[in-house]
Amino acid sequence: MQAAQESVTYVFCDVNGLHETNSKFGHEAGDRMLIALASELAKSFGQDMSFRFGGDDFLAIALDERLDKVQAKRYFLT
Predict the structure, then answer these.
(1) Taking a C-beta distance cutoff of 8 angstroms, is the pair 34, 45 a contact?
(2) Coil/strand/helix, residue 67
(3) pLDDT per residue over 15-29, tens digit each?
(4) How much helix, strand and coil, in percent to the nearest 5, is found in the chain?
């Protein structure tokens, strides 16, 4: 965070439907959901700025990026 000159933006993500997917299709399907989200976050925010911090919760961090650019990155998640 010390590398930021102007701003730090945090994007919190929660995987909707993970429990239902695990119940209906098995944990391998749920794992694929988690891996897909982690992959997309890493592509958009960088692997060193994308984190899974529990269950189906993820965090991505953007340093010194305009808010509209960060918002455009997160739209793939909705």
Answers:
(1) no
(2) helix
(3) 889 999 999 999 999
(4) 55, 25, 25
